[in-house]
Amino acid sequence: MLASASTIRTALSSVVLALLVLGLKYLAYLLTGSVALYSDALESIINVVAAGGAYLALRVSARPADAGHPYGHSKAEYFSAVTEGVLIVLAALSIVREALPLFSQPRSVEAPLLGLLISAGASVINFVWAGVLLRTGRERRSPALIADGQHVMSDVVTSAGVLGGVVLAKYTGWFVLDPALAVLVALNILWSGYGLMRDSVGGLMDAAVNADTERLIRQAISEQAGGAIEAHDLRTRHAGAVTFIEFHLVVPGAMTVEEAHAICDRLEDALRLAVAGANVTIHVEPQEKAKHHGVLVL
């Protein structure tokens, strides 16, 4: 399953919106001078880079299989997601570096209404767009779009906390709240980046499908392999939107090639219905190769 043109357009739209939000947040920082709002704007710079990386990765993953890449280019999305996770972590460390000196020398925070409204407006844009990215990414099974959506949603959490802290710092006089909140935001971003890299590295390392998906696969094989004896040595892995499924199918020794082929066709159709983007490879074996374990045919 290749990245569709609409998926690529979604990623390109994410770049445009990231640039818009960056401009709004930096303007809010200039109006307020808040280090917390500066940290918010800094993360938006990372959003632009990450959205651009997701767009390029989707362009690469959309290429069909060729002689040099017989399994396609789907894993390009994981490289984008890992890179985005690294950028999230770097953004968090940069925020901490800016905030720490202000604990010993807190400075007053200006909170003009215009600056706060601009920052809030940018957050609303991000919240709506994050929902679009996450929904689209799950529907199209795109790690790059899901990663981008998670990153943008973490930016929404960041912005909400920052706005609250800036208002509190201004109207209570506790200016230390500004750097304190920036550090809390950085910790939240670090956690988000860790989760993103963990999931993406799993894809690069050919991690198996989750338990629910494996259960669907085993059920489809068991119900649709009528005429065969068993299926064993089931192996699965993800590569972007593609799920590779491989197993050995044991059939009676007297079965013709045509009959065995018909069972394989039926299994492939059933597995593609059960698991979107399934790429199925079946190795047919005679009865004496049975291992008497794996998936028993109903």
Written description of the protein model:
The protein is α+β, with helices and mostly antiparallel strands and 298 residues long. It has helices at residues 5-32, 35-61, 76-99, 101-104, 113-139, 143-172, 177-204, 211-224, 257-274, and strands at residues 230-239, 242-250, 278-285, 295-296. The protein folds into two domains: 5-204, Cation efflux protein transmembrane domain (Alpha-lytic protease prodomain-like, Up-down Bundle); 211-296, Cation efflux protein, cytoplasmic domain (Alpha-Beta Plaits, 2-Layer Sandwich). Strand 2 (242-250), helix 9 (257-274) and strand 3 (278-285) form a beta-alpha-beta unit. Helix 1 packs antiparallel against helix 5 (113-139) and helix 3 (76-99) runs parallel beside helix 6 (143-172). The model has no long low-confidence stretch (mean pLDDT 82). Residues 213-286 form the Cation efflux protein cytoplasmic domain. It is a multi-pass membrane protein. It is found in: Cell membrane. Its main location: membrane.
